[in-house]
Amino acid sequence: MKIIIIDDEVRARKSIADLLKLSSLDIDIVAEADGVKTGIEAIKKYKPDLILLDIDMPDGTGFDLLKAMDYINFKIIFITAYEEFAVKAFEFSAIDYILKPADPKKLLEAISKAQQIVEQENINLKLNALFANLDNVNPDSKKLVLKTAEKIYLISTRDIIRCESDMGYTQFFLADGKNVLVSKNLKDYEVLLDGLGFFRIHQSHLINLKYIDYYDKTEGGSVKMKDKSMLPLSRRKKESFLKLIEMM
Fold it and tell me: CATH for 2-134?
């Protein structure tokens, strides 16, 4: 795997390069660059399989570099000091990132994961989602990338009716009637969608509150959704759920 390291800090580039050279990974650092202009030149010259990309650089950002490329056919791992909002944007967009200062173990794991992905995923779709998420703070406009065995979906959080746990997988039920099954557990999405109008009413169910039809008090309580599903409300979630819907 041919790798280019793009970071304006000499010490950061050297630290990463030294770490990679000492690892057992089958990689070749073909170039280093210190900014957007030199990064673009290195990419065009060496045609890497993977770039390790800083975000803030003197002549622009890592995003500027990617937007300047006519075609992206390489994998990307961002190395960033960005705060929580931007980190969430990476997670929504299913793009790998490492927080500065780079943790050696996490960096090697990310590169190893990139090596194991044989096919070129639709990185352009993921980057479009990332740019949209960084530009827009409106929760209803968040773009979520969902990967299945056959396809990559780009959906808006406003179109998710509910998520259901399915033996370590998560089933998404969307407003257009589609179902999407992804190989991540429900807890991951509970954390990712926190603060965006979602609530986990049961061990197996995470719902978008705006799609609630009604709450049924009988037989311990259940929640009817706009897609006609009737979902159980766990006893330990009941009090906090009722407080939430009273505020709506």
Answer: 3.40.50.2300
